[in-house]
Design a protein that fits this description.
The chain is built from nine helices and no strands. The protein is mostly helical. The chain has a domain of 134 residues: Ferritin, core subunit, four-helix bundle (Ferritin, Up-down Bundle), CATH 1.20.1260. Helix 1 packs across helix 3 and helix 6 packs antiparallel against helix 9. It is elongated and about 45 Å long. The chain starts with 5 loop residues before the first helix and ends with a helix.
């Protein structure tokens, strides 16, 4: 049996969908997702314009956004692994759990070094919507949905960490952000490899 690449499956899903809400929420088709992944990995316009106007340069804002991002990666990957049969993507999801747990620890250590308070991470409305979409997806659709949301989340994470590393107000956190950004770039490249 031939395997259909994930981006083709996402394109078919989008074309066959009669759900206007899903179409509205799905800002990209699988083909666009592949383009987003490639563009973000190469530092292209999507990586450069990933909500940079709202990126925090203060420590508290960075800690909150980075914590929420890591929480989303971990929870969405756990939800995905419970539904998918795609071995490559499940391996990627486990890597997300492991490495985003590590990035959380790195940020927490930097914050403690700077004597900063660490609030419990909380998902924003968009992250909660994406998590719910993965949790509620049919098994046949979950791979494409997960890949699309991973592209979105990593695009935003890359902008966050690169932005804070360049413009942040706390040296310990700037160092941590600078160390995390290349890891996020590797995640984008791996997602592109799997999706390509």
């Amino acid at each position: 049996m031939k395997k259909i690449p994930i981006f083709s499956a996402a394109l078919l899903l989008a074309a066959c969908s009669n759900n206007d809400t899903a179409d509205t929420n799905a800002n990209t088709t699988g083909v666009d997702t592949a383009t987003e992944i490639t563009s973000a990995a190469s530092g292209g316009p999507i990586a450069e314009n990933a909500g940079t106007a709202n990126l925090p340069t203060n420590a508290a804002g960075y800690i909150a956004m980075a914590g929420a991002g890591d929480l989303w990666e971990i929870e969405s990957s756990k939800a995905f692994m419970a539904k998918s049969n795609n071995a490559d993507l499940k391996k990627f999801a486990q890597m997300m759990i492991d490495q985003h747990t590590q990035s959380t620890a790195k940020i927490n250590a930097a914050a403690k070094t700077a004597n900063l308070t660490l609030p419990a991470p909380k998902l924003d409305a968009e992250q909660q919507r994406m998590l719910d979409e993965i949790k509620n997806a049919e098994a046949a659709d979950v791979d494409a949905i997960y890949v699309r949301h991973q592209a979105t989340a990593h695009r935003k994470a890359l902008a966050l960490h690169q932005g804070y590393a360049a413009n942040g107000d706390n040296d310990a956190l700037k160092k941590a952000a600078g160390e995390i950004a290349p890891v996020v770039e590797k995640h984008i490249a791996e997602l592109g490899r799997i999706n390509g």
